[in-house]
Amino acid sequence: MTTEPPTTSVRSMAASLLPPEAGRSARFIWLSNFEAERAWTHAGTVRLPTLSQPDDQAIVNRLEEMNLFLAEAPDPLILREPSDQAFLAYLEGLGFRLPRILKVAPPDKQTFISEAILKSDQCCQALREYARQHDHCYLLPYAKTRLEEAIAEKAGLQPIGPPSAVCERVNSKIYSRRVSKSLGLTTIEGGECESIEEIGEEFKRLSAILSRGGRIVLKEAMGVSGKGLVVIDSEAKFQRLLSLLKRMAKPGAMIAFVLESWLDKLKDINYQIFISRSGETRLLTVKEIITEGGAHMGHRFPAALSTAQMDCYEAAAQAIGAQLFKDGFTGIAGVDSIIDRQDTVYPLLEINARFNMSTYQLGLDRLLPPEAQVIAKHYPLLLREPLSFERLSDSIGSDLLRPTESPYGVILQNFATVNVNFRLEQPGPFKGRLYALLVGNGPDQVQHLDRRMSHALSALDALAPAH
Questions:
Q1: CB of 167 closer than 8 Å to CB of 142
Q2: Which terminus of the chain has a smaller tally of CB atoms within 10 A, N or C?
Q3: Rounded to the nearest 5 degrees, what angle is found at the Cα of 50, between the Cα atoms of 44 and 52?
Q4: Angstrom distance (rounded) from CA 352 to CA 176
Q5: What confidence tens digit (pLDDT) does each residue in 109-164 have?
Q6: Is 38 left (phi over 0), alpha (psi -120 to 50) or beta?
């Protein structure tokens, strides 16, 4: 096995944040602490009502397996549990050098992985031992919160990137709105609310939108993946919501929301930027978000944008990057934006001070021809028994991308999310997801691959009926 550091783009960017000597010999311990917003949300913060779905949380936690496309030997990767051996063999066949896996084995499928690491003496000891063997050893998480800082301190790992307090501040939708306005970017009508009174006052200012047949949305400052928001279509609904928030707001509670006009969107656009240690900003990717029934399903890239729209994103990336650097942030950040039905670009809805799903796709760049059209999406599954990787790959058949045969086809991004909710002691249907990249030489081929994937999963009796 090679001892030379891998050269994936994300790893190279991380290394460039370090002093040159450290960057050349650095070892990174990779960790995908998805939904870090849970740790950034302070105890006592008033939250909007939500239904907790343990099976969905289990799926999100196992998205960590996508890190196998970024973390390569000799770097270690922390996972909740080992990956399927057939899936690992598939990755090696794509040309990826598998990292050393450090297993945490949390007590259940919902526990936040960083909390599990801190409670695992065995895992922390393995991290300490690895750190002793290398002069420059860094924890490289999906996002940095106080928990990852505690892991680094406990295991003797060195810090990289901004402190968790900076990441937390930057990740707030309140910060994003204020930056958007201060930079003179086109900003959705609305306001930032840090008290119950401010929510009421902002609603009065926006209520005319309702009389015109429009809608308003209240968003938690740390909401993620379409959660932590309520769409308001009447004053009566708002008053009921406000009464609920007042009852929940105990003395000393933290209030952090934005209240905005709900726009009729043409496209959701996500773009990633990288801010170097010297403050230079690079626009990494621009992708269109795919939604079905309001649910986030994946990305399409390259995004179909006009020259003027692309110029807008280039300019916004530079302005936002400069402000982030001024506020102490370096590294990769994602920015959510929209284009309305009048083709107006709103380039900054929110900043994600962390990796996102597009970041993990950067590890696949080596497999994608320059002219490729790509959709990254997930397929909701409802299974009655565990699905083996061999059976899945046989069903996909010749559509599965094989670099030695064709640069086009299906790349499977994750297998852990397929069977994560199977319980031997509870037989019966269980939820899963399959994440894939559909790589074609044009939109027709991509759509053809999508239809064939749905057909293959249906033939396995695995595709969720609603899909």
A1: no
A2: N
A3: 100
A4: 9
A5: 999 999 999 999 999 999 999 999 999 999 999 999 999 999 999 999 999 999 99
A6: alpha
Are 275 and 318 in contact by the 8 Å Cβ rule? The answer is no
Contacts of 122 by beta carbon, 8 Å cutoff, 6+ apart = none
Domains: count for the chain? 4
- Give the pLDDT confidence of 16-29 residue by residue, as tens digits: 999 999 999 999 99
Last residue of a domain, one of 244, 262, 280: 262
Nearest partner of 324 among 178, 191, 186, judged by Cα: 178
119 Cβ neighbours under 8 A, 6+ residues apart: none
Residue 112 forms part of a structural domain: yes
Asked if residue 143 belongs to a domain, the reply is yes
413 Cβ partners below 8 Å, 6+ apart?
66, 69, 360, 361, 364, 376, 435, 436, 437
How far does the chain reach from its first CA to its final CA, in angstroms? 43
Q: How confident is the model at residue 49 (pLDDT cuts 50, 70, 90)?
A: confident
Residues 445 and 323: their CA atoms lie apart, in Å, by 41
Output the CA torsion sign for 88, 89, 93, 99: positive
Query: Domain range spanning residue 423?
Result: 369-459
What's the rounded Cα separation, in Å, for the pair 166 and 153?
Answer: 18
Which CATH number is 345's domain given? 3.30.470.20
Whether 108 and 239 share a structural domain = no
CATH number at residue 197: 3.30.1490.20
SS3 305: coil
CB atoms within 10 A of CB 388: 14
* Assigned token pair, 226: 């379409």
CA distance 76 to 123: 12
Mean pLDDT for 455-467 is: 90
What's the rounded Cα separation, in Å, for the pair 143 and 40? 10
